[in-house]
Design brief:
The chain has 545 residues and is mainly α. The chain is built from 22 helices and 10 strands.
Length: 545
């Protein structure tokens, strides 16, 4: 186990200093360096933090023993969390990517790789962050502004990892009994024997997350400001990111006052985007309201494992060409004409795919929106030309979206992954204020956000808590479609899954078409990886979800 821990720690350092083409790990055995040497200097600690930045988007097989190229960090987790609750609708099987997730055939199997990799990647973050935290504490290293920044990021990363773990592998805080519900192992030690512990309670994990994020904010208050001006700066966590994570943790646990206040703090200095910026494709950290995002560098591109391959309809890959991603039709039809966010969805795009799930694709003969083949082909060609996929064989489908677009459409060039932006913080504030019964405050937050997208918006029309929450839930979808919030929103709101009228095909979606609410349906809880059950002496089959 000691060798494994060193491998994880050093892999972060290596990932920060080499490209995926290098074979440094093969040439430098992990037992050739002591853990104390790996963290001997502030510069080395910075390498570990930079390695965690890369872990969020790099192919895991170049970082972790037993890793797979399939699960390239947030490229995969963001898209899978939206796919499995129908926030992003798949129109056809194509090459089958994410099919097991949206059909609910993946997270429910202890031996499925999705469970193992999510668990393993998150605990890798926990272990690496803890190594830095413990080293500074044990050696009583004086904290200057550089080390304060490193510690702020380490504590925030640990809270981030545990938040993701507890959200997926345990019952939701608001729908269960957190004081007794089993959570995940709480492991912050980095000294022998390196044995993972038993499942802590959900409450214990939340207590750790709250303590960690408060420590993070405290250290960031002592640190020098994060750099500005280039997309790579926002790959680093800063005090705004920490406040944003604090807001997410508080919202998920019903600490409404903290959620609202932290959301306001998080968005300071990150103004909402203009219409042209909002429609530009969500492909760069340079957008003004991006608080945090992965800056995907060319030497670490994941090609056909990327977020834009799985989400954008302009990426040049078989998953995109054969499976145009759709906006939920029922949600689209609730967006008023004065809201410019409607413009990134094409409800009347011709259905050009003869393999479409709805059996209405291939020609005007079967597409109910067209009765003339020439018109059908003209509109299809025009769309492809406008969005940069002309001549590449991209299929189209009604309600397909162009919210996410590659900077260079029709290519496989890497683009950034947005992880947090100020729009989310407005929605957290609005929801938290509504849940406290602070109607005017919730209305004000909604008005500021949605009023910037819809010239005719009037939040005062939503005058009760129930009406406000209905509107807030719609705005979570419309504003953050495709950005990975679907699964956790269902858990927090205790909402069943029902894709009737969404555009999803019930035969193709199978068990993922309809599910009872999380409070009465443990199928929402991900299975603990069988490999963890087998390896952890503190877990048995009786501890499985």
């Amino acid at each position: 186990m000691k060798r494994r821990f060193l491998y994880l720690l050093i892999s972060c350092m290596v990932l920060a200093s080499t490209s995926c083409d290098d074979e440094f790990l093969e040439r430098t055995p992990t037992d050739a360096i002591a853990a104390s040497d790996a963290l001997a200097t502030t510069a080395n600690m910075r390498l570990v933090i930079n390695g965690l930045h890369r872990l969020l988007y790099a192919q895991s097989q170049v970082i972790l023993p037993g890793g797979s190229s399939t699960f390239s960090g947030e490229h995969y987790w963001i898209t899978s969390d939206d796919a499995m609750v129908g926030n992003v609708i798949h129109s056809a099987p194509a090459n089958g990517w994410l099919r097991d997730e949206l059909q609910w055939n993946a997270h429910s199997l202890p031996t499925d790789p999705i469970n193992f990799h999510r668990w393993y990647q998150r605990y890798h973050i926990v272990a690496s962050a803890s190594a830095i935290i413990n080293k500074v504490e044990e050696d009583a290293i004086p904290v200057d502004d550089e080390l304060a920044d490193i510690l702020g990021q380490a504590y925030a990363y640990r809270a981030y990892a545990y938040y993701d773990l507890i959200t997926h592998f345990a019952r939701g805080y608001l729908i269960g009994n957190p004081a007794s519900d089993p959570g995940v192992p709480l492991q912050t030690g980095t000294e022998p024997p390196y044995t993972s512990g038993p499942r802590a309670t959900v409450q214990e994990i939340y207590d750790q997350m709250r303590a960690d994020i408060n420590e993070s904010i405290s250290f960031f208050e002592q640190a020098s400001a994060r750099c500005t001006g280039t997309p790579d700066c926002k790959s680093n966590l800063n005090i705004n990111v920490a406040h944003g994570l604090k807001a997410r943790i508080a919202l998920s646990s019903g600490d409404w006052a903290t959620a609202a206040a932290s959301a306001v703090e998080a968005r300071q200095g990150y103004p909402l985007m203009s219409e042209s910026e909002w429609k530009s494709g969500f492909n760069t950290n340079s957008l003004p309201e991006v608080i945090w995002g992965s800056n995907v560098i060319s030497t670490e591109t994941v090609f056909f494992r990327s977020y834009f391959y799985l989400m954008s309809n302009t990426f040049n890959g078989s998953q995109n060409r054969g499976n145009p991603k759709l906006f939920n039709a029922e949600m689209y039809n609730q967006i008023p004409d004065t809201d410019y966010r409607r413009d990134v969805v094409l409800p009347l795009a011709p259905n050009t795919n003869p393999s479409a799930n709805n059996d209405q694709g291939g020609s005007a003969d079967v597409d109910p929106n067209y009765d003339d083949q020439a018109r059908f082909e003209f509109v299809a060609d025009s769309i492809r030309t406008v969005y940069g996929t002309d001549g590449l064989g991209h299929n189209l489908h009604p309600y397909m979206h162009y919210k996410m677009k590659n900077k260079n459409p029709g290519t496989i060039d890497p683009d950034d992954i947005i992880l947090m932006r100020s729009a989310e913080m407005y929605l957290i504030e609005a929801e938290a204020e509504a849940m406290q019964g602070n109607i005017p405050a919730a209305q004000n937050a909604l008005q500021e956000l949605v009023g910037s997208r819809n010239s005719a918006y009037n939040a005062a029309l939503f005058a009760t808590q129930a009406d406000l929450m209905d509107e807030i839930k719609l705005q979570w979808y419309v504003e953050l479609f495709g950005e990975g919030f679907g699964y956790e929103n269902h858990i927090r709101w205790d909402e069943p899954l029902d894709l009737t009228n969404s555009g999803a095909d019930p035969t193709y979606y199978g068990d993922g078409f309809m599910q009872a609410a999380p409070s009465v349906n443990d199928s929402w809880i991900w299975k603990i990886p069988q490999a963890e059950i087998d390896a952890n002496p503190n877990l048995t089959e009786n501890n499985q979800n």
